[in-house]
Amino acid sequence: MRDVIAEVDQNGVVVDEWRLFDILDPYRDVIMKTLDQGAVCLNIDASQSGHTLSEEDLAALDSSDKFGDIVGSGAGRNWAHVNSVDYDSEDDSIIISSRHQSAIIKIGRDKKVKWILGTPAGWKAPFNAAILTPVDSKGQKIACQDSGCEGDFDWTWTQHTAFKIDSKSKGDILYLSAFDNGDGRGLEQPAMQSMKYSRSVIYKIDQKNKTVQQIWQYGKERGNEWFSPVTSITEYQTDKNSVFVYSATAGGAFDLSVGAFTSLPNPYLEEFKWGEKEPAVEMQIHGARGYQAMPFSLTKALTE
């Protein structure tokens, strides 16, 4: 969650660590300035919904003695907010989801950045050379600005659960699933809260040519009713060739006059057959709150 990732063995002994403040740029604050302060994980304050941090706010935080979950730049502060780590055995690397950088990043055992999936805004050398180039289905480069790209392609913003799809990946071609929460999308807060949306998304990455193609998304068409400002999951299910999605904090009533949620979320659970645009199964859970969800076999749980 902070800026050090530890690898431990079965006895709990630390065998390796990735010090992100040495590997990445802990002072890249372009995303932090666009975050809705009412939707900052672990320090959620609904009364701050719609408010962002200014340069002066960040400077004040940087000079304070408050560390940990408070958003801020620099080592020890919550500039990275890593919410998932996945291991790629093919090249002995890790893939991290950094919420407060709105970036999915692959880092090798040698602690070198292999690629970055996210807006190029604010990435200085040498990191800017690792940014993946968006392409269409024909491999043609898509016109992009820092805030977004032409067509349907979009980066993930304040995302969760960046997972490699092992069974579909091979060699330099890597399939990746993620839940794109969407806060700070396009490097801004929209004029109205109701304009926010989340997505479940799958990318195809050519690691050799440093390109990325968006091959599937769901959620943009659902609009704000499906928007989850925090948490949630997208995960491929190998045994069923399907995509499992949990929009964990969707559907909460928001009162603009007080700037706060007035009810618990009404999250959605969905399962999609691979490549399908509509869910094969959808369930809505009323008055619930959760971080993530996962399918499991009751039979296996009780017998194995």
UniProtKB/TrEMBL annotation:
Cross-referenced Pfam families: Arylsulfotrans
Keywords: Transferase
Record has Transferase as a keyword: yes
Spans through the membrane: none
Stated name of the protein: Arylsulfotransferase
Organism of this sequence: Salmonella enterica subsp. enterica serovar Bovismorbificans
Domain of life of the organism encoding this protein: Bacteria
MF terms in GO: aryl sulfotransferase activity
InterPro entries documented for this protein: Arylsulfate_ST, Arylsulfotransferase_bact
